[in-house]
Amino acid sequence: MTTSGRTGGQLLADALVAQGVEHLFCVPGESYLDFLDGLYNQRNRIATITCRFEAGAVHMAEAYGKLTGKPGVCAVTRGPGACHAAIGVHVAMQDSTPLVLLIGQIPSDETDRDSFQEVDYRKMFGPLAKWVTQIDDAARIPEQIAHAFDVAVSGRPGPVVISISEDMQKEIAVVRDSGPAPVLAPFPAPEAMPRLMAMLAKAQRPLVVLGGSCWTAQGKADIRDFLVANNLPVAVGFRRQGLFDGNLAQYAGDLGVGADPALVGFAKKSDLIIAIGTRLGEAVSQGYTLFDLAGEKPIVQVFPDGGEIGRVFRPALGIVSDLNAFAGVAAATAPVKNPAWAGWTLEVRAARVASRVAPEYAGPLNLAVALQELEAALPADTIFTSDAGNFATWPTRFTHVSEKQDFLGPTNGAMGYGVPAAIGAKITHPGRAVICFAGDGGFMMTGQELATAFHHDAPVVVLVFNNGMYGTIRMYQERAYPERISATPLTNPDFVKFIEAFGGYGERVEATADFTPAVLRALASRKPSIIEVMMDPEQLTHRATITQLRAQAAKA
Q1: Would the pTM count as exceeding 0.85?
Q2: Which of 64, 84, 143, 338 has the smallest CB count inside 10 Å?
Q3: In this model, does residue 82 exceed pLDDT 70?
Q4: Distance (Å, rounded) from C-alpha 473 to C-alpha 469?
């Protein structure tokens, strides 16, 4: 830890090294040239990933945070760069992902003059981040960067935004680096598990809702052992499929947007909800309608931030604990003897199995069957990323994520997330296969980040489900204003030629039998790839066609 004089830019780079940062995702800008110069000195310790759009860069960093539990780090320039990055901060906040965003800022002596690209980031990001600050004194860089990393992972994880003024980056300061603080994770109170198990022993129809972030492999294994030992039916929160092996007999499906009506019915009939890691937010609670706000149905809520427990639904028992620490204690707790819910668990699981049966779809492509064939052929440690849109309901409904696999999706419904998240995931784990699910609408928002995949040798495979429209909005449009089509049709490029223009691998798929072989060829190519999946525009969702939606609207 050097004590010689260093510029603020060098101190910033050194402070990241002191916090253990290995990857930084960025779009360069003149507002942080001195920081970039500092990164040059640390080029053998921090891989600087050059991206093509700030939103893409933050999504990549957010994916890193989801996969590692450590803050993903991103740097963008002031004004427009920061505005572009805001969507990624919103994703990290709603998804509870640790993230540190560094923003170059105007010189301090130009503040409040409406200077070129001036923005007050405390006001702009205040509602979106856990903490927003500006470093104006180079000597405080180690202190404030260390605190930012602490805040990002403490309690409910989330994003921290740090503005770095141009002049501060040039200052010379003599200060020691500050490393990570060894903070022990909060464990559940001694009476927590006895009280939870006593409530569980009285239950007839319990249901676990599993969610949250920063789960470790050991934590997921421990919570699995606890849930399986007690034979509890387990629903995962919205886009949290990677937290519990869908092939296990206890898996009940996902509670989120487009949840299986049968699972929603079971949640309503349950007599005990054990919410582990989930905030029970709007998507999981089906618009805050699934449970009584005053707590008529007993809820046990386990969460690392006491301020979130009972925020909406009043729990019968709140347990403040690190999720992995709770899982370890739970796994070591003797299970309930002769549980009364064995038949209930079988019933809930049977509904999940039934919901996974592929329907008969018109046309040559049955996407449900195709995805199930792909599921059986992919590596056991595949990472899946998903964009937002109706297409995403097909893999959610008809496939399972197994224990060693990961699934990353934006719980805030951000379109444009899937492709950069896939690239961030591949950079984080270069030895694992990465498959991205994206609609044609979302792909065109950040698909240019495939240039980043080529630049940094990240051979992801993107499945572009092309139905020529903003499908989710068209679905709502047909329900509310049938046949009055406005603003939802799209004109797309030839996606195969798009990826081939980069030198990548591309195929177009129109039939079920061609789907899995095409994806496997893409993986074997070891190039960034696109498989364009031609969807029937009439089949608007995995459950309904446009004709059916219009008929339902006519009856309403």
Answers
A1: yes
A2: 338
A3: yes
A4: 9
